[in-house]
């Protein structure tokens, strides 16, 4: 479930990046329409470049996607003890087969609990990573909304003047 959610978030973020690229092209086209006689932009009609703003740099330049997990895997594979504690869980009184079976069963339960713990830690780190990605998507969405609004205002102004 977390994997498919992560893939959806990746697709959403890629879509936002594509919208950003499309807006860059649209702004270049708007700048061409704003030129006097199609040659140069009049200084008093020059619009600010959205990509030089601090919000743009903070949102689009500082992506943490693609970072390598330096913590490494959390699940211990090939543990010689099978994930069991080597000391013993049951105090031996009669030293019979029942105590041996209880010891084995408790060892297996301990291994399963250890695996569950590792799975929970991995899920927590994946959720944390996805939360950061959702925050980036929200920032990009707000930035793109402002950018589209500005481009629409520029286009309406051009249409009114011509």
TrEMBL record:
Where, if anywhere, are coiled coils annotated?
Answer: 2-36
Q: Return the InterPro entries for the record.
A: SNAP-25_dom, T_SNARE_dom
The protein's location, in the record's own words, is: Synapse, Synaptosome
Q: Which GO terms describe its molecular function?
A: SNAP receptor activity; syntaxin binding
T-SNARE coiled-coil homology domain ranges (all copies): 1-33, 96-158
Q: Which SUPFAM superfamilies match?
A: SNARE fusion complex
Q: Name one GO cellular component term.
A: plasma membrane
**UniProt key word Repeat:** yes
Annotated keywords: Coiled coil, Repeat, Synapse, Synaptosome
What top-level branch of life does the organism fall under? Eukaryota
Which positions, given as ranges, span the membrane? none
Q: Which GO terms describe its biological process?
A: synaptic vesicle fusion to presynaptic active zone membrane; synaptic vesicle priming
Q: Which PANTHER family match?
A: SYNAPTOSOMAL ASSOCIATED PROTEIN (PTHR19305), SYNAPTOSOMAL-ASSOCIATED PROTEIN-RELATED (PTHR19305:SF14)
Question: Which family is it part of?
Answer: Belongs to the SNAP-25 family.
The protein's name: Synaptosomal-associated protein
Instruction: Provide the organism lineage as a comma list.
Output: Eukaryota, Metazoa, Spiralia, Lophotrochozoa, Mollusca
């Amino acid at each position: 479930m977390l994997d498919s959610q992560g893939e959806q978030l990746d697709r959403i973020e890629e879509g936002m990046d594509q919208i950003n690229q499309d807006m860059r092209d649209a702004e270049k086209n708007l700048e061409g329409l704003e030129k006097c006689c199609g040659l140069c932009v009049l200084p008093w009609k020059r619009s600010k470049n959205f990509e030089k703003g601090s919000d743009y740099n903070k949102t689009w330049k500082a992506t943490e996607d693609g970072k390598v997990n330096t913590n490494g895997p959390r699940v211990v594979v090939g543990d010689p003890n099978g994930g069991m504690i080597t000391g013993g869980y049951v105090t031996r009184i009669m030293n019979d087969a029942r105590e041996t079976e209880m010891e084995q069963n408790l060892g297996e339960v301990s291994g399963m609990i250890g695996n569950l713990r590792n799975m929970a830690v991995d899920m927590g780190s994946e959720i944390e990573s996805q939360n950061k990605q959702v925050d980036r998507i929200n920032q990009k969405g707000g930035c793109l909304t402002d950018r589209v609004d500005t481009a629409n205002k520029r286009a309406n102004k051009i249409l009114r003047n011509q």
